[in-house]
Amino acid sequence: MSTQQFERSTLRQIRLHVLPTDRYKTFAISAYIGRPLSEEDVTQTALVPFVLRRGTESYPETKQFREHLDDLYGAGFGFDIYKRGDYQIVQFRMDVINDRFVSSPESLLEKALSFLGEAITKPAAEGDAFLSKYVESEKETLRKRIESIINDKIRFAAERCIAEMCKGEPYRLHPLGELKDIPASTPESLFAYFKKWLAEAPIDLYVVGNTTLQEVENIVSRSFRLEREENPGYTRTAPQRRTGETHVVVERFPVAQGKLNMGLRTPITYGDDAYPAALMYNGILGGYPHSKLFLNVRERASLAYYASSRLDGHKGILTIQSGIEMQNYEKAVDIIRKQLEDMRTGFISDIELSQTRAMIANQLREMQDSAFEQIAFDFNAVLSGKERTVQELIDGVTNTSIAEIQQAAEGVFLDTIYFLRDEKEEAK
Question: Is-above-0.85 flag for pTM?
Answer without folding.
Answer: yes
